[in-house]
Amino acid sequence: MGQAVAGGLGWSVGEVARTAGVTVRTLHHYDRIGLLRPSARTPSGYRSYHRRDLERLQRILGYRELGFSLEEIAAVLDGESDAVAHLRRQRDLLIGRIARLQRMLATLDRTMEARRMGINLTPEEMLEVFGHDPTRYAEEAEQRWGDTDAYRESRRRTASYTKDDWKAMGAEAGAITQRLAAAMAAGLPADSPEAMDAAQAHREHISRWFYECSTQMHVGLAQMYLADPRFTANYEDVAPGLAQYVHDAIVADAARG
Predict the structure, then answer these.
(1) Distance (Å, whole) CA 122 – CA 26
(2) Which of 28-42, 80-94, 178-192 comes out lowest in average pLDDT?
(3) What is the DSSP string of 214-253?
(4) Are the C-beta atoms of residues 149 and 211 closer than 8 Å to each other?
């Protein structure tokens, strides 16, 4: 740690400052307020820091990095003399800080991904509106449909939607799903006028909120509702067998022109 002074008993304030990455002025301030007083003085009156001083400085800098005020650090250090206890406390605090930073990073990533998808909502608003994180499959969606006009149109439209818009859209989608579930529960076949009208409302809903959905595109979506378990679950969670019923109603509606 540089050349020792005072007969090899300690280090000068300049040596400590250079090694610890702080200024001499900072060390002088720590000395004045009693936070870090050197153990000795040289015959010429210069500060001489010993190993225990350096250990205390390490703890001070560790707590400063964790956001503690100098007053809080003094209270912690002067109330606990066990070096291992200090290190354990700093480790626990650092783990907590890392966890908070990771949560902040995850929130930032979700917000950035939502903006990229055209969803101008905060993570809290997304949870309120959707009940889940709608960005979970954003990368997959872009890979599958990113080059299509429908995907680009959907992003263009949704970029202007407010939280109230998303809520209105969700309520409308939920009402259509309930119409289909009610038709199935009533024993109506999927090609009944009631079921096909609900399927048509489903297609019009997509055209109104996201992109112009042709009957052919609608049938493609219906096939995905059965092929992809994640989409299937959206309907099966409402009523067992509903995914197949929705598929069949969409196909029947497309066939009637």
Answers:
(1) 41
(2) 80-94
(3) -HHHHHHHHHHHHHSHHHHHHHHTTSTTHHHHHHHHHHHH
(4) yes
Phi-psi region of 45 (alpha: psi -120 to 50; beta: other; left: phi over 0): left
Q: With pLDDT > 90 as the criterion, what percentage of the chain qualifies?
A: 40
CA-nearest of 38, 58, 61 to 50 is 38
Cα 164 off chain centre by: 22
- CATH topology assigned to domain 123-255: Globin-like (1.10.490)
Per the CB < 8 A criterion, the answer to whether 225 and 243 are in contact is yes
- CA distance linking residue 43 with residue 184, whole number of Å: 96
**Which residue is it, tokens 């059965």?**
226
Cβ of 103: how many Cβ atoms within 10 Å? 10
CA distances (Å), origin 7, targets 3, 17, 43, 122, 132:
10, 20, 10, 63, 67
Where along the chain do the CATH 1.10.1660.10 domains lie?
A: 13-60
User: Is residue 77's pLDDT more than 50?
Assistant: yes
Task: Tell me where in the chain the CATH 1.10.490.50 domain(s) lie.
Answer: 123-255
Q: Which two three-digit tokens encode residue 238?
A: 């409402």
Global pTM?
A: 0.50
Please compute the mean of the pLDDT values over residues 95-111 and round it to a whole number. Answer: 68
